[in-house]
């Protein structure tokens, strides 16, 4: 699994590529937790190049969001219709901040 990482201002953007499934969720989790634990004030997860996320991947997103406390921001963006549907069905769209694209996510973060 490949995960792109970049910094824009005080935000760290993580872009998982292709799939986050049961075999790759540990890699995704390690990267998310490393960035969360680095103390960065803003994390944007850009799903624009993701075509599948399993329940294991959803758990990583939820854990990362819960760990961002004390005024820190954790936002998601760039979901394809298929990925958005997974987040809708899981109920995560009600508890996470989701934006249509990276620019909107960075502006909100």
UniProtKB/TrEMBL annotation:
Domain STAS: 1-109
One Pfam family it belongs to: STAS
UniProt-recorded Gene Ontology molecular function terms: anti-sigma factor antagonist activity
Family: Belongs to the anti-sigma-factor antagonist family.
Official protein name in the record: Anti-sigma factor antagonist
